[in-house]
Design brief:
The chain contains 11 helices and 6 strands. With 359 residues, it is mainly alpha-helical.
Length: 359
Amino acid sequence: MALMGNAREQQPSDSPIRKRAGLRCRGAPLRLAVAPTTLPALPMDPQLALLLAAVLLDALLGDPNYRLHPIRVLGHGSIALEHGLFARGWAGRLAGVLHGLAVTLGALGAWWLVHLGLDALHPLLGWLWDVYIAYSLLCTRDLLEHGRRVLAVLDDLPAARERLRWLVSRDTEGLDRGAVVRATIESLAENLTDGVLTPLWALALLGIPGLIMAKAISSLDSMVGYRTERYRRFGWAAARADDLLHWLPARLSVPLLAVAAALTGQHWRAVLPAARCWHGALASPNSGWSEAAAAGALHVRLAGPVSYHGAWQDKPWMGDAAWPEDLAADDLRRALRLVAVAAALAVVVALGMFLVVRG
């Protein structure tokens, strides 16, 4: 699919748009000859400007919170379609594949139809629509803000547990302060891959279509990609697609976190050995890489036994036995700095990807 700004050439300085009208002699009707509207000349590639604008808006404003947020709309559509399929007895793997394709293609189609309509009015409107979509689907500041909200009330355990529930799906009741900090750091590290690296790099490499597909796949996995009785077969396609989507970014998060650790005065030499040693502690083929790398960078123990829906799971620990597991506020502060710097480095990598792809 051609992206705006690539297929359309910029209007030259001596454009015929300057010619406003031409007159026929002897009272002939006035005929206006106006050239097609084009996107005003930008000092850079419109797609590069889009990438930078989306990153800047996300950094300054954070994730917009309102009823018609694109992810909420996608979620409502996914739930409605799922209920329709289950009502007809379609709950197997094929139904899950059709569900995923319909949701993803529907999201792409909705974006493209609005883009075409606005672009027909004025190309700048189409570009602004794309900026809005990209900004809405990036969530680096939102991730960091959730971590900071937990940190702000860490001395009030009930409040900290309540805020932690926005980040994790595990049971938070009864967690002590160290467990709350561990869970927050684990979520920050995992979502560095899922919520920051993959969507940002998809936008840089594939434009808005790539970003929409990445967010649709991630959202579908978070909704149906579970090994429960209902979703074991229906959610299989969403879970496998999500594993494939994040496979490379998860592994690239390790050197990114190593550089971030060096820049923030953390234990950068321990990042790669920790990732190699403990990435398999989690069932996910991807989540363990960034979490183990973060454990190495911070010299703390993560993971360990955890409760989901009242049932304890004896998960292995990540990190050396000599590293602390009873973590405190300072550990969370260090983790927030680490993830923030890694996210900033990811933007630099994204710009490099864009320039390489665009030549």
